[in-house]
Amino acid sequence: MQDPIEKSRDLVGGVVVMALGAGFLLSARALPFGSSGKMGPGYFPIILSVILIALGGALAIAALRRSSSEGSFGHIAWRGVLLVVGAVIFFGLAMEGLGLAPALFAVVLAAAAASRYARVRTGLPLAIGLAAFCSLLFIKALGMPMPLVGPWLSTEFWWPAASSSLQ
Amino acid sequence: MELFSDLALGVSTALSPFNLLYCFIGVLLGTAIGVLPGLGPVATIAMLLPLTFGLDPVSALIMLAGIYYGAQYGGSTTAILINLPGESSSVVTAIDGYQMAKKGRAGAALATAALGSFFAGTVATILLALAAPPLAAVALKFGPTEYFSLMVLGLVASVALASGSLLKAFIMIVLGLLLGLVGTDIESGAQRFTFDTPELMDGMNFVALSMGVFGLGEILRNLEHEQTRSVMVKRVSGLMLSKEEFKRIIGPVLRGTTIGSVLGILPGGGAMLSSFAAYALEKKSSPNKAEFGQGAIEGVAAPEAANNAGAQTSFIPMLTLGIPSNSVMALMIGAMIIQGITPGPNVITDEPTLFWGMIVSMWIGNLMLVLLNLPLIGLWVRMLTIPYHLLFPAIIAFCCIGAYSVNNSTFDVFIMATFGLIGYGLIKLDFEPAPLLLGFILGPMLEENLRRAMLLSRGDPTVFVTHPISLVMLLVAVIMLAVIVLPSIRAKREEAFSE
């Protein structure tokens, strides 16, 4: 019944929740509170933040009162976190500049590397295939307003003077 | 009879070639993701939402609904054939379904699942058509006081019926409510939690949030313990049930349908809870008790009927009250809002084509699923040979495009990345993220109704207990909470979930 992982996990969870609640409270503090008959924009958020802190505290205390040894959180997929989240952030940063096709190619390649079964032999065709398929589907067929190849890949973007002097 | 003219409208809407096509695409996609473990209806619907913005609202919702109930069919196929439930609602089907398959009765198990689901889907659809209009008529009389109490009841019930820690589920709800408040306060125009970011002024994008938590978070969890799937595809033959088998499934299908229909309506219910409850009941009451776990056909019939009935009837509170009972319904409400439809009791009268079209399309969709699934079983099983390491990069690619295309803004992509991290953190800390989404969708509505109720009562909080309807709803919420907290019933609840 006693899960050794549960204690440290719930303790950390409770503290994190309390910190989140405190963050919300801090941010909502400046908003007018109003009165219960005429609630200001701060009324509901402040009450919710206080409830969140209380619930987080209850979780942490309940964890402390349990008599079990410290445990770990189990395995954390650091490589996955880094590559997957990194790939998504890269897409956000680079899609409009690079264009959908090259950005997706990079995203899929990076994300695929997060798997322990990642091989260049499978990852490369997957990245090319998905970039081509999505470009066709979303830009050509569905007409979504995304650049296929973005301005970063043109020489004018990097050397505007050079291209204008050529004209 | 008004019902018949309404249904006629529904039939003409659902049978239009365009809507038939979207219904078909929906159930096909639903079956596919139902087959694939690691990709659920919540993430799929979130990914596809941006694609439906350009569609007519009726077609869009018909397709999204198809994904949800289609997934119930798909999940059972793999549960039976290879003991790998594609969806959480098919977990119990795998117990006896796979044993039947090992004994060479895979065809009979699949046919039982399909027939049971179809019967349950039909009954639940009729129930939806009959129960929704009177329920909405009652709800139309609700004032802000009743609505506030109804939402509180909904949130409490969704927590009470879910598995896991009660305290943690409440934390998720409150966190979701707070996140739902991000943006401009509609009454005062004040900026809340926006940190002067213009992109946050209209609120946090719920598509990006749900794709982050349910899409990316799930992928990160799956990457922890990756394994290769070895799939042995055997030929499935003998789809016909024997006379004796047919007799044995009638009772379980009827009971499963009843349980599923009731639990589906309740907040927090839906497909998964229904299937667990139906299996537990059969296991206790069946005359063939001894066979359970070794390939009892009842153990396939009851949960499969229940999960489909539950999936269908969970649309009732969503369509009549505008209150989501699970994460999928929360997304459907979000989809309606984006399409410019205000969810609530007015939907039936203001958007009759949408409401009746959806109901009829659900029945047609169920019919399509029966006709589709049995002949295409080989194809679905072959889909399982797609290894996860090729599948998840594709999911990430679709999530990126989906998040970007909601507002054509890269900001939403960053929101999704952030919530991917948060979602994974929640999984690691053993928080079930589903109530977060419910809270997120209900946050603004809850505040608005609380404000209005308190304004009308001039700040007197006792209105919530002096209005009779509101009082009843709050009492039900309190009873539900009391019931779970009481130790004896708590033990039973844990037992029910562990089974």
TrEMBL record, chain A:
<dbReference type="InterPro" id="IPR009936">
    <property type="entry name" value="DUF1468"/>
</dbReference>
<feature type="domain" description="DUF1468">
    <location>
        <begin position="12"/>
        <end position="147"/>
    </location>
</feature>
<feature type="transmembrane region" description="Helical">
    <location>
        <begin position="100"/>
        <end position="117"/>
    </location>
</feature>
<dbReference type="Pfam" id="PF07331">
    <property type="entry name" value="TctB"/>
</dbReference>
<feature type="transmembrane region" description="Helical">
    <location>
        <begin position="124"/>
        <end position="143"/>
    </location>
</feature>
<feature type="transmembrane region" description="Helical">
    <location>
        <begin position="12"/>
        <end position="31"/>
    </location>
</feature>
<keyword id="KW-1133">Transmembrane helix</keyword>
<keyword id="KW-0812">Transmembrane</keyword>
<feature type="transmembrane region" description="Helical">
    <location>
        <begin position="76"/>
        <end position="94"/>
    </location>
</feature>
<protein>
    <submittedName>
        <fullName>Tripartite tricarboxylate transporter TctB family protein</fullName>
    </submittedName>
</protein>
<feature type="transmembrane region" description="Helical">
    <location>
        <begin position="43"/>
        <end position="64"/>
    </location>
</feature>
<keyword id="KW-0472">Membrane</keyword>
TrEMBL record, chain B:
<feature type="transmembrane region" description="Helical">
    <location>
        <begin position="321"/>
        <end position="342"/>
    </location>
</feature>
<keyword id="KW-0812">Transmembrane</keyword>
<feature type="transmembrane region" description="Helical">
    <location>
        <begin position="388"/>
        <end position="407"/>
    </location>
</feature>
<feature type="transmembrane region" description="Helical">
    <location>
        <begin position="413"/>
        <end position="442"/>
    </location>
</feature>
<feature type="transmembrane region" description="Helical">
    <location>
        <begin position="354"/>
        <end position="381"/>
    </location>
</feature>
<dbReference type="Pfam" id="PF01970">
    <property type="entry name" value="TctA"/>
</dbReference>
<feature type="transmembrane region" description="Helical">
    <location>
        <begin position="152"/>
        <end position="182"/>
    </location>
</feature>
<feature type="transmembrane region" description="Helical">
    <location>
        <begin position="108"/>
        <end position="132"/>
    </location>
</feature>
<keyword id="KW-0472">Membrane</keyword>
<protein>
    <submittedName>
        <fullName>Tripartite tricarboxylate transporter permease</fullName>
    </submittedName>
</protein>
<keyword id="KW-1133">Transmembrane helix</keyword>
<dbReference type="InterPro" id="IPR002823">
    <property type="entry name" value="DUF112_TM"/>
</dbReference>
<feature type="transmembrane region" description="Helical">
    <location>
        <begin position="259"/>
        <end position="281"/>
    </location>
</feature>
<feature type="transmembrane region" description="Helical">
    <location>
        <begin position="463"/>
        <end position="489"/>
    </location>
</feature>
<feature type="domain" description="DUF112">
    <location>
        <begin position="20"/>
        <end position="438"/>
    </location>
</feature>
